[in-house]
Design brief:
about 160 residues; mainly alpha; DPS_DNA-bd_CS; DPS_DNA-bd; Dps family protein
Length: about 160
């Protein structure tokens, strides 16, 4: 008779199931926002035109690369907390607070404005998780959020500076 495989041990990291679920729900929204902003930024990298083409094309590449590298740590934190990370366009569309990229590429400075607003929105999403994270004493998630907020606020500032007359 075949031996039944052992089930995985119960997760016991000092954070309750309820707190892990709440944190994971917020991280799933952060993941969706980050991925949506990544797609928009990559879209704008491909489709930017005009006198600022070279500088914006290069800037957008740096930004979408940073965003691409950010999605994995967010998803892996969700997994570390014992939950499944969302990973489909349908899930991201339901979870994200950001609008999808416009079907017709806007003018260059409108792209900058959309991305600036997107980075501020992702910073707000990340910041909104702190009450649940602090309640659970979830320092690794707090560290991740602090890093993400720093990047998004700085990027928003740089983009906003391009819009100043």
């Amino acid at each position: 008779m075949a031996k039944k495989p052992a089930s995985a041990p119960t997760l016991n990291i000092g954070i309750s199931d309820k707190d892990r679920a709440a944190i994971t729900a917020g991280l799933s929204k952060l993941l969706a926002d980050t991925y949506t902003l990544y797609l928009t930024t990559h879209n704008f990298h491909w489709n930017v035109t005009g006198p600022m083409f070279n500088s914006l094309h290069a800037m957008f590449m740096g930004q979408y690369t940073e965003l691409w590298n950010a999605v994995d740590p967010i998803a892996e934190r969700i997994r570390s907390l014992g939950h499944v990370a969302p990973g489909s366009y349908a899930q991201f569309a339901k979870l994200s607070s950001l609008k999808d990229a416009p079907a017709t590429p806007p003018k260059a400075l409108e792209m900058v404005r959309i991305l600036q607003e997107g980075h501020e929105a992702v910073a707000r999403t990340a910041r909104s998780l702190f009450p649940a994270v602090e309640k659970a004493s979830d320092e690794p998630t707090a560290d991740l959020l602090t890093q993400r907020i720093t990047v998004h606020e700085q990027t928003a500032w740089m983009l906003r500076s391009l819009l100043d007359d």
